[in-house]
Design a protein that fits this description.
Number of helices: 18
Shape: elongated
Strand order of the largest sheet: 17-16-3-7-5-23-24
Structural class: alpha+beta
Largest sheet: 7 strands, antiparallel
Strand content: 15-25%
Distance between the termini: 85 Å
Helix content: 25-40%
Oligomer: single chain
Radius of gyration: 29 Å
Number of strands: 25
């Protein structure tokens, strides 16, 4: 293959992987800019400015209310993109000119001058670590700074966190049901919600635990392994063996050239007897296509075997070509099945490989990779597990990237403090009542090493201590409370942005990916199970509980009966 900065190298397993040393991981999507926001953010900014609130200091919490996919955990993702946005926040001249026409008439010229000078230098951003498990009501990000700028950040931060966290969570769930030893590939670009959705899906499915993507641009931009074989179109483009213009392949070590088609035909005849299949039932065009592809990629030969009939044609032709390659010093990689009864066909394929391995004394043949695709979702994998499938790798597209079970996470961005005064939003729906004030959050661990509970406190409270009894309360149900004696206390917030710069060394995508798996290990299995998982507890300190309810009473109107 070519050895340039944008080369694609063939891995030992026959998959394609972009050269990982070439690309800048600080790529930022040019669409992510201050105008990627809702109009009302800018109209509010003008109203704040008109009211003289430029120096007001506010604190906002970004959080979600319910875990997705009927589960009991969420993976926090998107933080790095938020920090890139903060770093580059600035209204260009053309942005300001556009706003002069887009906003209502009568807005003072000085406001546009103000906007043109606005940056995020006076903002402080606190967040939990990207790739961490997170839970409802726990702010993923806490933003503090001048009211106008922190208001203007809202929509963009939400769009950067919402889908990223949903996608990473979906991918992590697939990883859990598939198990550690099954490879997972993201094949969803063609089904994603546009090119931006496709790129984000590739990035965050990798973070969530997938092993690679078919998306070549994602491989280039994010250093994700890129993997793929061929489509049914490649098989159907050949109608017979007479179409093969190149039939010769040199031996990998000796260089001796032999006709690969002739070898494959010889082996096909032998295999037909061993497998009790008539060669008359197998497709000549399919055989020609496989020989052609094997000559193009002798070290990476993986073939799609379900174009016509897996049992009577695809498997027979593949195995014949694989044995022919073996004679020339190469080992085939495996097959992909894209339709039909995946459990049955995978077992049939494995049994076939094992028979051939024994007959020809080729140990590696029994271990050929079986990849399955075809509209796979969580339930499909669980069902295949119950049926004892022999699949080594799943290629998953539509259900993964579109998050069909739940297409949105529902993160919100709420003001909790203004000029050191707490703010609360009330609602008849208790789930929508906000947690007022500037807060810290701690994760308390039990003696078995698992996380027990996440505890929200006011920032002026002393943090919980190891071995010391802590009263943890449900934020809205008075009788739900418990003492916890933690064996380990983890402060979840770090300052990631202050004084106009990123303040933490940012992890690589692989480090975030590892963080996801390590963070999931801190949860008990019953929190992670697919069916009826146990809710993870989120609590407030006694001090914060009383603070919330006092503020609630102060702000709730008193009704009058007549």
């Amino acid at each position: 293959m070519m050895s340039s900065n944008n080369s694609v190298d063939l891995l030992e397993d026959g998959a394609f992987a972009a050269n990982k040393n070439s690309w800048n991981r600080y790529y930022q999507n040019s669409v992510v800019q201050p105008l990627l926001t809702d109009l009302y953010q800018i109209t509010m900014a003008y109203a704040y400015w008109k009211s003289g609130k430029m120096d007001d200091h506010a604190v906002f919490d970004l959080f979600f209310r319910t875990n997705p996919f009927q589960g009991e955990f969420t993976i926090f993702a998107g933080l790095e993109e938020c920090l890139k946005f903060m770093e580059n926040f600035h209204y260009s001249e053309t942005d300001v000119e556009y706003l002069k026409h887009a906003l209502p008439q009568g807005i003072e010229e000085e406001f546009f001058d103000y906007l043109s000078q606005l940056t995020a230098k006076d903002v402080t951003l606190y967040a939990i670590e990207e790739g961490s498990v997170a839970f409802p009501r726990i702010p993923l990000i806490k933003i503090a700074g001048p009211l106008i700028i922190v208001q203007l950040l809202e929509t963009t931060l939400l769009t950067l966190v919402n889908y990223a966290s949903l996608m990473a969570t979906n991918a992590a769930r697939y990883r859990m049901v598939a198990g550690r030893h099954i490879n997972l590939l993201e094949f969803g670009l063609r089904r994603a919600q546009g090119p931006d959705g496709g790129l984000s899906a590739s990035k965050y499915s990798y973070i969530g635990g997938f092993d690679g993507t078919s998306n070549v641009l994602a491989g280039k931009l994010f250093n994700i392994p890129v993997k793929g074989t061929h489509a049914h179109a490649y098989i159907t483009s050949f109608t017979g063996i007479q179409e093969l213009k190149t039939r010769v392949l040199a031996h990998k070590e000796t260089g001796d050239k032999r006709d690969l088609l002739e070898l494959a035909l010889q082996y096909r005849g032998q295999l037909a007897k061993i497998l009790d299949i008539s060669t008359d039932e197998s497709s000549e065009g399919e055989l020609a296509a496989m020989v052609s592809f094997a000559i193009a990629f002798p070290d990476g030969f993986m073939a799609l075997v379900d174009t016509y009939d897996v049992k009577r044609s695809g498997l027979l032709n593949f195995c014949a070509v694989a044995l022919a390659l073996n004679d020339q010093g190469y080992r085939a990689v495996g097959i992909r099945i894209d339709s039909g009864d995946l459990a049955y066909l995978s077992c049939l394929s494995r049994e076939t490989f094992e028979r051939i391995s024994e007959r020809f004394k080729l140990t590696w043949f029994s271990k050929l990779t079986i990849v399955a695709s075809n509209d796979i979702n969580e339930e499909t994998i669980l069902s295949l597990n119950e049926q004892g499938h022999k699949i080594d790798c799943f290629g998953i597209g539509t259900h993964l990237v579109t998050c069909q079970r739940q297409p949105a996470l529902g993160c919100v961005y709420k003001m909790v403090e203004i000029n050191s005064q707490p703010r609360i939003k009330l609602s008849q729906d208790v789930a929508k009542v906000t947690m007022p004030g500037n807060k810290n959050v701690f994760r308390l661990y039990g003696a078995d090493g698992h996380a027990l509970i996440d505890l929200l406190q006011r920032v002026d409270e002393s943090p919980p201590e190891v071995g010391q009894k802590v009263l943890c309360r449900h934020p809205f149900q008075e009788s739900k409370r418990a003492y916890v004696i933690p064996t380990h206390v983890e402060a979840l917030y770090k300052v990631y942005w202050a004084d106009g710069r990123v303040t933490q060394a940012m992890p690589s995508l692989d480090e975030v990916r590892e963080r996801v798996q390590n963070s999931l290990k801190t949860l008990r299995q019953d929190h992670k199970r697919t069916l009826n998982p146990t809710p993870y507890k989120v609590a407030v300190s006694d001090n914060l509980y009383n603070f919330i309810h006092d503020l609630w009473l102060q702000n709730a109107p008193i009704g009058e009966l007549s």
